[in-house]
Design a protein that fits this description.
The protein is mostly helical. It contains four helices and no strands.
Length: 135
């Protein structure tokens, strides 16, 4: 099990985003458990593919809310998303090409990035969107 468990301290008080954060955390935990259990590389590849796709879906959903409500720090937030997206796409590519194995360290990196991002960047936009009726 990972050292992050979604609870109310991670809430941005936007139901859709909170649900997505919970699902993303659960997917990271699933990948970590699969690695720890020694599941075959094909299984890990599928979980990672789903995780990368879901990260893209989540980032797009979050960014659409920011654009719709003219969040003034959208550009900076988008850059953070792109850094993470590029990093996990790099993990995926290297893994698929056999240049890297998926380890708990990779999942720990993703987990810490997400926790840090939610607690700082996402918590920053939450009051702005909440004040505009986005819950």
């Amino acid at each position: 099990m990972l050292d992050i468990i979604w609870d109310e301290t991670y809430s941005v008080h936007i139901a859709e985003i909170d649900q997505q954060h919970q699902k993303f955390t659960a997917m990271l935990d699933m990948l970590f458990e699969a690695i720890e259990a020694g599941r075959p590389q094909s299984a890990l590849s599928e979980i990672l593919r789903e995780l990368v796709a879901y990260a893209g879906y989540h980032f797009d959903a979050e960014e659409q809310l920011m654009i719709k409500h003219h969040y003034p720090e959208f550009g900076e937030h988008h850059k953070e998303h792109e850094v993470f997206r590029n990093k996990i796409l790099g993990f995926q590519k290297n893994f698929q090409e056999g240049r890297e194995t998926l380890t708990g360290d990779v999942v720990q990196f993703m987990t810490h990035w997400i926790a840090e991002h939610v607690m700082k960047a996402d918590k920053k936009y939450a009051p702005f969107l909440n004040a505009r009726g986005v819950f």
